[in-house]
User: What shape does this take?
Amino acid sequence: MDFVTTPVARHVAERIASWTPNYVMPPEPYYVDCSVTVTDTDDKLLIDKANASVKVRGNWTTSYNKKPLRIKFETKQSMLGLNDGGEYKNWLLLAEYKDFSMLRDKTAFQLAGEILGNDGFYAADSQLVEVTINGEYWGVYLLTEQQQINSGRVEVTESEKDYTGTDIGYFLEYDGYYYNEDALHSFKVNYHNDAALTPYDGNGGSGRTAKPFAGGKNDVGFTIKSDVYSQEQHDHIERFVSNVYDIMYEAAYNDKAFVMSDDFRTITETTVLSPREAVEKVIDLRSLADSYILAELTCDADIYWSSFFMSVDFGEGGSRKLRFEAPWDFDSSMGNKDRCADGKGFYAGNIIFDVNGEFEEMCNPWLMVLINEDWYQDIIKERWAEIYDSGAFERAYEMITSDSEKFEPAFTRNYDKWDNIRHNDARNELCAGAAACTTQKQAADYLKGWLKSRVDFLNSEWHK
Assistant: This one.
């Protein structure tokens, strides 16, 4: 069982070692061969001993006792009908160790499906499962999808092996761990020379400004999650992303329209387009508005740091626009950490204090740069009204209640195994309300109450 109990991501282990005397460095996550059997709740056999490999996956979550896992099948498999029964080799099992409700990621994925998915953008599907490893019960996990370019997932032109042209699709992560990647799969953006941005707090920013790099404290770059095989491909996407941001900034802060050259290398000012039209030529505004709404709704604690994904397709038929999709990593969101714990106020386009509480000047520049534009606010409010009126939030409340009741025996078995709802080594990361929960039902009720409060606040601001 060492493969699932001992590994810790190397960059995480190095940080722990920096403050832990005599810390023994654990192994990095590694694959082991396995077979996977899947049954439904009626014990009907769905997959019988399919050949696969499995390893611990994640960043900080690899340091917890119960670790998330990645399964890579030898042949494509459909898993419990997720994503309309799509067959894929790669699937994930999220441990939900620090979320006592075990429902935050599932709730966020369901809402993402109703917000982004209904607009044609990718959002992962998920289902709660119980896991047994080598005959030992290992608890409740959330089965979900690998964030990757694939039909039915992130749908952009996939690069063929060793192809070096730039007419391909790219899948990107705004990522504080970008430095762990090789040089070909990572880059940084200078954000219009780190120009100051006005946060959105409902009060014109209250005289404050934020900078993307936060005085050098917010060292966040980009990871290229898709395959690239040449420096030309790397430099192409680096220039494109940088130019897109500059066009957004010029539109929002200087009321100027800039367009990109045909080779995407440079931008020049134009009077033919309005600033908004210039932005619409290089980003998918609907995807950005949807992603902003989801981030604002959930108050995702990692929003300025990681797990914020984008794609762009330069292949035949591709839009050549930056698209925001594949939302991820919500176990610290929705009132679990001390971020918008009362469900009030504006968050996603505002100044954020970091997850360790060390500074109070972080931001996600992609969500902040346009947020004070009236026309962009109109898009957000119109989209919010559509989502609210569709009943999406009522369905989320219902899911939280029904899953808590339906899976109560499984949750009990999970906490008998891990005991982490009472003695959790991640408890000190949580806000008082979340940390006070002593049963899964209490945690689910707390989550539902927080979400209702959040929806009510945003609806009062956006759906008048």
